Amino acid sequence: MDIFGVDIGGSGVKGAPVDTASGELAAERKRIDTPLPSTPSAVAAVIGEIADHHQWSGPAGIAVPGVVQRGVVRTAANIDDGWVDIDAVAALGGRFDGVTVVNDADAAALAEVRFGAGRGESGVIVVLTFGTGIGSAVINDGKLLPNTEFGHLEFHGGAAELYAASRLVEGEAEAGIGTEEWIDRVNEYLAYLETLLWPDLFVIGGGISKRFEMYGEMLVAQAEIRPAALRNDAGIVGAALAALEEMASNE
Ligand code: BGC
User: Fold this and answer.
1) Which residue, judged by its Cα, is nearest atom 1 of ligand 1?
2) Predicted TM-score (pTM) above 0.70
3) 75 pocket-lining for ligand 1 (C-beta < 6 Å)
4) If I label 231, which of 7, 15, 47, 111 is the partner at 20 to 30 A Cα–Cα?
């Protein structure tokens, strides 16, 4: 079954129909810059454009860069503050035949466990998405613990994502750093997470995952480290999978 997947990021909103049986995009994804300010109504309009582009009015899953409890967004570190306490299902669902809203890193993890780097793996997997912020997801024996926010652990005097997000090396940040400095910071962050979580596997995703060849070998941890197999599409695919799961549980 195809379900529309949308991933709202700090710099772009991306969407495509997803073949939920194969985890592949059923059509090329469409990306539009995240509007500024990125208010719920401005983002809803962009999602509408993306859905129009694909002539889609069926069910959808939408990944947002914040904590989501029962469809309500609770935090908004890298998106307009207006998202906090918004019922995102009501705000974004109008044009779809049912919508499920999920945290973006949780979505990426669902996709990686089902179709990507975590497929068939037991034990504890920590998925980290590096982009404008740092998203985290924890999976134990295939089951997700939702809404972990390890990008917001205090690290070096502030949120870890301010210290180690990949926006720092991608020209998005005012005070950018070089790749080696960024790798050192990520390694330090992974070591810190390992003192708290002891995962068997780290999966590294987000916008930076498309360049994993360039830096992957320099990442070190006690746990194995793999790149997200679905790369930056994991959020789109996982959002659609979350919608499928919710539809199945409502039947
Ligand atoms: C948010 C997370 C999100 C991550 C990646 C963080 O700032 O708090 O919920 O998963 O950014 O977008």
Assistant:
1) 66
2) yes
3) yes
4) 47
